[in-house]
């Protein structure tokens, strides 16, 4: 089950389309959907989580809490809409594409992909592009 929660003035249009896309991402990696929540929030909301749980005092676009067990994918993915908007401008990207990238990024973390080293970052970026493309393929 996938739930979308909104802690800021934002909501997904056609949430069912996003749900189907996320399910397809998980299936494409030979995993199964457990319980997954996306929480869309503000910079300040996510900053507080970052400080409390990760001991980082900086803004970020996403924090993922992984509750997966083997190939059953479960977790909470917090996304700062403020950061997504700012990064879209910074990287000269459409807001919706940047949002897809961040949403895919979170579920890829739950699927076991990392992004600490150079090779991991390259693999993550390739996977993000691959999964974003799946959104535009007819569901």
Overall description:
The relative contact order is 0.16. The protein starts with a strand and ends with a helix. 51% of the residues lie in helices and 21% in strands. The mean pLDDT is 94. A four-stranded mixed beta sheet has the order 1-2-4-3, sandwiched between helices. It has five helices and four strands; from the N terminus they run βαβαββααα. The protein has 139 residues and is an alpha/beta fold.
- What value does the average pLDDT take? 94
- Topology, number of strands: 4
Q: Which residues sit in consecutive blocks of at least 5 with pLDDT less than 50? A: none
State the secondary-structure class: alpha/beta
Silhouette: globular
- Please report the distance between the alpha carbons of the first and last residues: 17 Å
Q: What spatial order of strands do you see in the largest sheet? A: 1-2-4-3
Largest sheet: 4 strands, mixed
Count of separate DSSP helical elements:
5
- Please provide the ordered H/E string of secondary-structure elements: EHEHEEHHH
Binned, the helix content reads: 40-55%
Please report which band the strand proportion falls in: under 5%, 5-15%, 15-25%, 25-35%, 35-45% or over 45%. Answer: 15-25%
As a whole number of angstroms, the C-alpha radius of gyration is 14 Å
